[in-house]
Design a protein that fits this description.
Blueprint (H helix, E strand, L loop, with lengths): L4 H4 L4 E5 L3 E5 L2 H6 L4 E5 L11 H22 L3 E5 L9 E7 L26 H13 L3
Antiparallel strand pairs: 1-2, 2-3, 3-5, 4-5
Amino acid sequence: MDACELCDSAGGEVLWQDAACRVVRVGGAEGAAFPGFCRVVWQRHAAELSDLSAAERRHLLDVVHAVECAVRATMRPDKVNLASLGNVVPHLHWHVIPRWRDDSHFPAPIWATPRRPAPARAQPATAVLRAAFGAALKGRS
């Protein structure tokens, strides 16, 4: 099998993890343009959601939901985009992307050509984002 970036590295700043998956804050230009942008990465190599058992899918989607809740609570975006593409890296992961009507790409996807300069927005403090995620994960049904 070819090298897999998400098997070989964390993929960002690890905010939380368990044996099944990890939550990372995206860095670099994407993270700067979309503060609070996180990924939920399945720990073992699996290419598709349908590769997981029913219990694994529930756990993964519970974590994705908790990350969305944490991003909404800390960043107050106009919208949150959820994406599981994996076209470049065939390793199951979900993008949780806060969006604002005035962001550089809105309403297009963040991977499209920018429409305007990115407005300055502060990154949420790691402790604040972790606490919001923990509260959302604890409150899941």
